[in-house]
Amino acid sequence: MTTDDREPTTSEQDDLELARELYQAGRNAFERGSYRQSVECLERAVSLAGGNSPLGGEIQIWLVNAYSAAERTTEAIGLCERLEQHPNFKTRKQSRRLLYILKAPQLKRRQEWLTQIPDLSNISEESDANKVVASRYTPSPQKRSPRPKPEPELEDIDLSQVNTQDNRFVWVALIGIALTIGGLLWFS
Fold first, then answer.
1. Domain boundaries defined on the chain
2. pLDDT, mean of residues 38-43
3. Could you confirm whether domain 10-103 is CATH 1.25.40.10?
4. Cα distances (Å, whole numbers) of residue 124 to 26, 50, 84, 180
């Protein structure tokens, strides 16, 4: 019996379950913008899940993104290069794509094109729950859109005042079309 054929022990199952929980916590932290916390959770998850497993590969791909977002580009590139040798094909493919993006030259951008986002990494989530922060931003009064004008009610139309005589336009148009088609057939 090889090591891959044996059933995992309860401690290995517990480690795998904890790895999944840390992986989810790392993804959630990443999506909230807490990249440092995301890196910590994902690094612990990789150590528990094992780097060569499919789950370990998936966690490491997220870890590359977290490194990059936390401005740890050299670590992200190094991890991507190691993942190119991963046993899982999907992980190898994603690492090649990420490595291509990470090694791409950075474009120079004008300062007026950028929006400055304040660094909130030093603020802990617990202190935010206990504090109420007043904003200096006061929204301008909203302009109300004009109310739609009520549609005029349709009055009953007196048909005795409507011109119901045939103006023969339809017949003239039909004759014109027939002559045009006949002329085309005649000349062809």
1. 10-103
2. 92
3. yes
4. 16, 30, 36, 82
Rg (CA), the chain: 35
Q: How far apart are CA 182 and CA 150, in angstroms?
A: 52
Alpha-carbon gap, residue 158 to 152, rounded angstroms? 17
Annotate the chain with DSSP letters as a single string.
--TTTSPPPHHHHHHHHHHHHHHHHHHHHHHHT-HHHHHHHHHHHHHHH-TTSHHHHHHHHHHHHHHHHTT-HHHHHHHHHHHTT-SSHHHHHHHHHHHHHHHSPPPP--GGG-------TTS-HHHHHH--PPPS--PPPPPPPPPPPPPPPPPPP-GGGS--S--SHHHHHHHHHHHHHHHHHHH-
CA distance 100 to 170: 67
* pLDDT tens profile 41-87: 999 999 888 888 889 999 999 999 999 999 899 999 999 999 999 99
| pTM of the entire predicted model | 0.55
